[in-house]
TrEMBL record:
Role of this protein: Modulates transcription in response to changes in cellular NADH/NAD(+) redox state.
Upper lineage: Bacteria, Bacillati, Bacillota, Bacilli, Bacillales
Gene encoding the protein: rex
Protein name: Redox-sensing transcriptional repressor Rex
Originating species: Robertmurraya siralis
Assigned protein family: Belongs to the transcriptional regulatory Rex family.
Protein residues bound to NAD(+): G92, V93, G94, N95, L96, G97
Length: 217
């Protein structure tokens, strides 16, 4: 994010990609204006929250008129740094890693997995999609050369911390951790943890105990 961007609350920042994706769809369908009620219905965030979120960016909407889609889109693109492609490294080209490589995020925004790493000889030197897979021995050299500061971890949990230490030492600032391991990093590095098994279990638990009506929050 650029330095002149207003500092927005983290909860708001997390919703930005959601708004952005919906606005992009609206834009491509030729719609020029959107009300907070319409946005609310589409992204499943209540309209008061949407209005509060948008208020952090200045008075972008007018009552009874809605928000200008083009303006919002330009604003979000800038705020989310969508004009600039962010290259990401993926460590661990197993089942999940391979799925992420095929998916490769380009439909939603401007981040792209640009390189993969593994230790299994059969995978080294191959490409998945257009992403080359290199040996872990080359990790530091390649990510430094490519200027990569974001990594996705899809290795077996016991290796996660050692690899994280190497990534941190090689100037990686953001790690999306798909392993169940809880990672220790310095304050200058940010880890987002996605434990699919836990998410699935908690969904089943919530369905069983709360049904579908009550919100989790
Ligand atoms: P697969 O069936 O391809 O093994 P998987 O997702 O079930 O997939 P895992 O054991 O979870 O396999 O390992 C994920 C990937 O991480 C594998 O491709 C494996 O070779 C790789 N891997 C294992 N140890 C390391 C390591 N130390 N550094 C990098 N990659 C590793």
């Amino acid at each position: 994010m650029s330095n002149d961007t207003v500092k927005i609350p983290q909860a708001t920042a997390k919703r930005l990609p959601l708004y952005y994706r919906f606005l992009k769809n609206l834009h491509s369908s030729g719609k020029q204006r959107v009300s907070s009620a319409e946005l609310s219905e589409a992204v499943k965030v209540d309209s008061a929250t949407i209005r509060r979120d948008f208020s952090y960016f200045g008075a972008l909407g007018k009552k009874g008129y809605g928000y200008n889609v083009n303006y919002l889109l330009t604003f979000f693109r800038k705020t989310l740094d969508q004009d600039e492609l962010t290259k990401v490294a993926l460590i661990g080209v197993g089942n999940l890693g391979t799925a992420l490589l095929h998916y490769n995020f380009l439909k939603n925004n401007n981040t792209k997995i640009a390189v993969g790493f593994d230790v299994e000889e059969a995978k080294i030197g191959t490409s998945i999609g257009d992403v080359p897979i290199h040996h872990m021995d080359e990790l530091e050299k390649i990510i430094t050369e490519m200027g990569i500061t974001v990594a996705i971890l899809t290795v077996p949990a016991p290796f996660a911390q050692t690899i994280t230490d190497r990534l941190v030492a090689a100037n990686v600032k953001g790690i999306l951790n798909f392993t169940p391991a809880r990672l220790t990093v310095p304050a200058t590095t940010r880890v987002h943890h996605i434990d699919l098994a836990v998410e699935l279990q908690s969904l089943v638990y919530f369905l069983k105990h709360y049904g579908v009506d009550e919100e989790e929050e």
